[in-house]
Each structure stands twice: as structure tokens, then as C-alpha cells.
Amino acid sequence: MKTLLSAAVLALLLPLAACAEAKFEQGKHYEIIAETTSAKPEVKEYFSFYCGGCNAFEPIAQSVAKKLPDDVEFKKVHVDFIRAAAPEIQNALARAYLVAKNLGKGDQVASAIFNQIHRARAPFSNENDIRNLVLIHDIDGETYDKAMKSFSVRGAASQMKKEQDELSERRVLTGVPMLIVNGKYRIINEALDRRNMETELQQLISYLLEKDA
């Protein structure tokens, strides 16, 4: 009985897999940027708080992240090559986001930073401006200050910069927002249907997550 049930389920899934295979094409919807996949399933978004396109994409990014399987982590990697602010401010924003994420408030703080820059048109002049915005989201000042200076947060921000430089040197990272699945597949945003972008993006991510499963 179990054998028959398994065969029936497989028969239902095969047409779906074939449909995804036909819909998404290497070189058109995604490209392979590495020979091996990441140790754990993941989706990485390379972005900048100063990027207008990233600001528009943020609601989709947050929605997609919430709908990923439980064993797939969504990671945001802030880049600093958009010359809209000093490198020190951009590094501080990356660290502030990391602190908020570690405290379970990453999405709220990311949205607030985007709004401050793109809607309120109120640039951050110094780290204290960033701190004031973050603390509005029920984050304790002492906890924030300690975390911003911590080895783990500074190390994570440095890792963001390292990844940015490496991918830029390889000409993989040429603009943002950019999504990479399992460290191997770069999604080509231009190929996605703008009228149905979120749904198609979710389908493509699911397809890529399963390719090496």
C-alpha cells in the first residue's frame, strides 16, 4: 500500500518538476556562478539601503523570506559601493541591521532605514542618527551599544564587505538587488515577469533550491 501511495505522489510531482524545468532556463532566468552549493540551503540578497530599486524590492524580499522552507535561511548582505554616504555610515547601517536581526527585529528596522532615506529624505549624518532610529523599535540602548561594538557583529559586517569585494572582482555582483540561491545560482531579475514578480520569484527560488537537493 505504501509503495502504491509513494508511486502516486511521485506521479503527481513529476509533471510539476517538468513544468518548472521548462519554465526556467539557465542563462535566461538564472546563471551558475559556482561549482558547489553552500553547506546549508540559503537565499542571499545583496542590497544597499541607498538603492532605490532595493527599497522597492524590500516588501517582496520580506514576503519571500517568510515563505521559504524552515530549513532555508534568508540572508541580507549590505553592500557599500553606492556612493550616497560615507563608508563609515554604510558600515554602521550594516551593523545596525545585524544587531536588529539578532534581536528578532531585522525586517522592522530594515524597513525603517529604507523609509528614512527614500521617503523622509532624511540622510544619516552620523552613527547617533542611526541609533536613534533603531531604538524606536523597542531595542534597549545599552544592548544596542554593546552589540554594535561586539566582535560577532563587526565580524559579520566585515564578512559582508569581503563577499561584496569577491563577487565584484568576479563580475558576479554588478548591481543590486541581487539574489543568490545556495551560493551557486544567481537569479537574473530582468527575466522575471514584473506583473507577477513575487510569485514567479518564489517559484524560481523553489526550483533552484531543489536542483541539488
TrEMBL record:
<dbReference type="Pfam" id="PF01323">
    <property type="entry name" value="DSBA"/>
</dbReference>
<comment type="similarity">
    <text>Belongs to the thioredoxin family. DsbA subfamily.</text>
</comment>
<keyword id="KW-0574">Periplasm</keyword>
<protein>
    <recommendedName>
        <fullName>Thiol:disulfide interchange protein</fullName>
    </recommendedName>
</protein>
<keyword id="KW-0676">Redox-active center</keyword>
<dbReference type="InterPro" id="IPR050824">
    <property type="entry name" value="Thiol_disulfide_DsbA"/>
</dbReference>
<dbReference type="InterPro" id="IPR013766">
    <property type="entry name" value="Thioredoxin_domain"/>
</dbReference>
<keyword id="KW-1015">Disulfide bond</keyword>
<dbReference type="InterPro" id="IPR023205">
    <property type="entry name" value="DsbA/DsbL"/>
</dbReference>
<feature type="domain" description="Thioredoxin">
    <location>
        <begin position="11"/>
        <end position="169"/>
    </location>
</feature>
<feature type="signal peptide">
    <location>
        <begin position="1"/>
        <end position="20"/>
    </location>
</feature>
<dbReference type="InterPro" id="IPR001853">
    <property type="entry name" value="DSBA-like_thioredoxin_dom"/>
</dbReference>
<dbReference type="InterPro" id="IPR036249">
    <property type="entry name" value="Thioredoxin-like_sf"/>
</dbReference>
<keyword id="KW-0732">Signal</keyword>
